[in-house]
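new request in #modeling-help
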Amino acid sequence: MDTEVFRAWIVRSAQVIEANRDHLTQLDAAIGDADHGINLARGFAAVTAALDGSPADTPGAVLTLTGSTLISKVGGASGPLYGVAFRRAGKALGVAADVDLPALEQALEAALAGVQQLGAASEGDKTMVDALAPATRALGKAIADGASLAGALSALADAAAVGAAATVSMQARKGRASYLGPRSVGHEDPGAASTTLILTALRDTALGDTAPRDTAR
Amino acid sequence: MKKLINAPDTVVTDALAGVAAAHPGLVVDVENKVITRAGGPKPGKVGLVSGGGSGHEPLHGGFVGYGMLDAACPGEVFTSPVPDQMLLATRAVDGGAGVLHVVKNYTGDVLNFQMAAELADDEDIEVASVIVNDDVAVEDSLSTAGRRGVGATVFVEKIAGALAEQGADLSAVAAVAREVNERSRSFGVALSPCIMPAAGKPTFELGDSEIELGIGIHGEPGRHRGPMRSARELAAVALDAIAADIALDGDLLVMVNGMGGTPLLELYVMYHEVAEYIGARGGRIARNLVGNYITSLEMQGFSVTVCGLTDDLTRLWDAPVDTPALRWGR
């Protein structure tokens, strides 16, 4: 996956977040403060504008710029958390012009570590970690099993979706939803939902490029 | 949704333009969303910076001025400001004696101020932070993000601001801010939800005779929902919760705060009940505030904040202050 794939991933993420803006905000209204979709859509719109005007010419540079822009523009908790995630992923990719699956896995592990360090969240706390952590593990397992690019990225996106769905039955222990105590149970975590949208956008973007080869297999 | 706005996207910057026009004693950077005192930093004085989502006015911008904050960074409605804003504010108020960040305990505010403090450190500006967490409605345990910062923020900003104005150093100003926070507790009740301009609909639904007990200031639901009841009973609910955490005896500073959509008439009804309750338990309300100081847009409801005073804290509370929302002694 080259720089163009990563640029296309971020642009697609922005489109998907915008399309799901009200859905994410409704999820947040149930257990938070009803601004997740609004803030993330505002942030990713700023990211696409920043990418348009930037010469970022490696996958790492694209992700680092994405993260820095989210930190600068979003606010709330999601700005720093997504910002750190993308920045750490970008730093992990270094200056490589092309990213293979093991490099992607390392980048996602770095992103996960950054989010957990900043937010002090563990799996089961009903946060974006509940989508990002199982997705990263699923990618690692798919690589170990010798999966194709399509298979590995599908495993990644599917595990994120399963993880996000599992947050419905969890009681929140981090963020504003934790103030609700047991009343937070029964609602999907908005951060896990947006993480799933972004990782699914990665699969869809990358497979858009590789679908013919995979079909031929 | 009916609101006095031009467009949901511009509500914060349009309001800041209004603040600039109304208060010549403030310098308002509308584009970067930073409000500072006119005249620049005072050499040798600790700078006080606070910030948080908009929608809580007069907090924080209304408390910028002599004897209180040096700068405030308003975020989007109910959304924490970003580190860039906080760094601009920190730079603008640094008079060489360091800067205190007053941060309400919300995940977003804490994370963004943490990043701003790191950026300021890179520029060799000494920054201390105090996290305000006075809301007894939230259990302070590992299973939550910790108690929220609500009404005590007003007390912290006033008292720490007074000490900074007197020339105390950063560690002393930070220490008094932490002391005020430790001595303060709050509890809030909502009779109605509020409507964020960008969302256009209420943040939660409440039946005609239902209320939310233990609310914060972001239109988020409270800890539980219950039936509407009298002012006397609601004062008891709030103060029972506060009294479970701090003693209501001795000299107290008490604020009965409106959430934005509550008539002052009703706030005085509440204040009477609060005073009766505290008096019956041997407390003396030495100082008070009744009005809208930390709001949640047009939400109907109130919060009570109680702080146990010492002679030193009373003197700092009484010290002159000159801001858009608090003004006395000068």
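bot summary: Chain A touches chain B at residues 25, 29, 32-35, 38-39, 42, 71-81, 118-119, 171, 173-176, 178-181, 183 (CB under 8 Å).
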